[in-house]
Specification:
about 475 residues; alpha/beta; Rossmann fold; 2 domains; 6-stranded parallel sheet; binds 1,4-dihydronicotinamide adenine dinucleotide; UDP-Glc/GDP-Man
Length: about 475
């Protein structure tokens, strides 16, 4: 029986390995993590991450051929294939701080693998890493190997949180990069055999190591760039009376452009897009390509601009001050169907409103009060972060409450601000909400989920990103 061990039981390691175990009953999969509470949660009825369909997959194979353990060294030593799916955040200190990927977790994982291995192994980069990382990892492994043969493969993950199980069951492609030597090709084939249990072989792309590593950064840069492009267009729509949804629909019909990832919003979030673009920017700078670096940096800067623009629009619409006014924040996760708040635009928007002394009542169906409080008071190492979107002070945090119901959040509020596109926000009883609010009652929709005409008929003053402004908002233009 082939044995797989995965280092890192996070948003990628957990779901990816659960699906491999489900689809490959002849393979034993052990997911290990140095953070014990996560392992305890994976072995309980309350998995550490929320992802539609994940519970079912885990229940079907946990205890059969899927195991979660904190015994990292034992399972690495026993494995034929070791996936490394540890976190690779942006460096906060030292050379490249604020841009470069912090590979400390990766390096310590590689040293540990070299240390405990007694048999040949395939080591798979699952984490997103800078191009050429495999070379460094190879050096660490071979210089500490005691004669053991390690083959390094790059197998970046393209799943999206919220649809991870669907994406893993039916991936657009699986990418495997490896050395072009006979041993390298053999390792590629071994990993290909794993995926071929359920992925059609024509969707398994094999490349050299550097192409695979760079393709992941390139994919995230292209996806984020589409969002920043449509968001930049949304500002122009508001200034001219065009409707960004109509523009997106019209341009998306062009098969060269395509319809996906053209929804204007308050901005992208999640642990990957910003981190990976900043990493790309750093790599370009290190390779003497400042023009290419500037091009990609702008994608992140437009994202910051969009958040600031949104906050400014809210404040200016509400008579240029939100001081002492209750604002209901609906949604805090960076997208629907996840409880993940890493880099969620809600952080910047809430911090901006708190900076203007608003009183926030926050509701998200999947995010805990502790998480929200941690996020709002956290210092971040973001690139060129505007001074307005800075961490909330302890005094400001007293103005934040978290509630478990959208109606409760909106009770007595001056405005509602939608920051995550949870389906339930489309079907709320907005008449009931309106009746319980201060007047004039405002809705600021950062995800374009509400029926604008219906809400305006009820009496709300509605702002949705990139849509024609009503008379009220036209009189109060927001400049970021
Ligand atoms: P995460 O933070 O949820 O999980 C990483 C886990 O690795 C943590 O639980 C941590 O305790 C553990 N860890 C760190 N060092 C370890 C070690 N030496 N041994 C064992 N465990 C160790 O991170 P996430 O979101 O799963 O991301 C992992 C990687 O995958 C990152 O490089 C990320 O960029 C990439 N990625 C993430 C995607 C996402 O949607 N979250 C999608 C595609 C790639």
């Amino acid at each position: 029986m082939v044995k797989i061990c995965c280092l890192g039981a996070g948003y990628v390691g957990g779901p990816t390995m659960a699906v491999i175990a489900l689809k490959c009953p002849d393979i034993e999969v052990v997911v290990v993590d140095i953070f014990e509470p996560r392992i305890i949660a994976w072995n309980s009825d309350h998995l550490p991450i929320y992802e539609p369909g994940l519970d079912d997959v885990v229940k079907q194979c946990r205890g059969k051929n899927l195991f979660f353990s904190k015994d990292v060294e034992k399972h690495v030593a026993e494995a034929d294939i070791v996936f490394v799916s540890v976190n690779t955040p942006t460096k906060t200190q030292g050379l490249g701080a604020g841009k470069a990927a912090d590979l400390a977790y990766w390096e310590s994982a590689a040293r540990m693998i070299a240390d405990v291995s007694r048999t040949d192994k395939i080591v798979v980069e699952k984490s997103t890493v800078p191009v050429k990382t495999a070379e460094a990892i190879e050096k660490i492994l071979t210089h500490n190997s005691k004669g053991i043969n390690f083959q390094i493969l790059s197998n970046p993950e393209f799943l999206a949180e919220g649809t991870a199980i669907q994406d893993l069951f039916n991936p657009d492609r699986v990418l495997i990069g490896g050395r072009e030597t006979p041993e390298g090709k053999k390792a590629i084939q071994a990993l290909k055999d794993v995926y071929a249990h359920w992925v059609p072989v024509e969707r398994i792309i094999c490349t050299n190591l550097w192409s695979a590593e760079l393709s992941k950064l390139a994919a995230n840069a292209f996806l984020a760039q589409r969002i920043s492009s449509v968001n930049a267009m949304s500002a122009l729509c508001e200034a001219t009376g065009a409707d960004v949804s109509q523009v997106s629909h019209a341009i998306g019909k062009d098969t060269r452009i395509g319809p996906k990832f053209l929804n204007a919003s308050v901005g992208f979030g999640g642990s990957c897009f910003q981190k990976d673009i900043l990493n790309l920017v750093y790599i370009c700078e290190c390779n003497g390509l400042p023009e290419v670096a500037t091009y990609w940096k702008q994608v992140v800067q437009v994202n910051e601009y969009q958040k600031t623009r949104f906050v400014n629009r809210m404040v200016s619409s509400m008579f240029n001050t939100v001081s002492g006014k209750k604002i209901a924040i609906l949604g805090f996760a960076f997208k629907k169907d996840t409880g993940d708040t890493r880099e969620t635009p809600a952080i910047g928007v809430c911090q901006g409103l708190l900076g203007d002394k608003a009183i926030l009542s926050i509701y998200d169906p999947q995010v805990s009060q502790e998480q929200i409080q941690r996020d709002l008071s956290m210092h971040k190492s973001e690139l060129d972060r505007p001074p307005r979107l800075q961490p909330a002070s302890p005094t400001a945090m007293k103005q934040v409450t978290c509630v478990w119901d959208a109606y409760e959040a909106a009770k007595g509020a001056h405005g509602i601000c939608i920051l995550t596109e949870w389906d339930e926000f489309k079907t709320l009883d907005y008449q009931k909400i309106y009746d319980d609010m201060q007047k004039p009652a405002f809705v600021f929709d950062g995800r374009n989920v509400v029926d604008v005409d219906k809400l305006r008929q009820i009496g709300f003053i509605v702002y949705t990103i990139g849509k024609p402004l009503d008379a009220w908002l036209k009189d109060m233009p927001a400049v970021a």
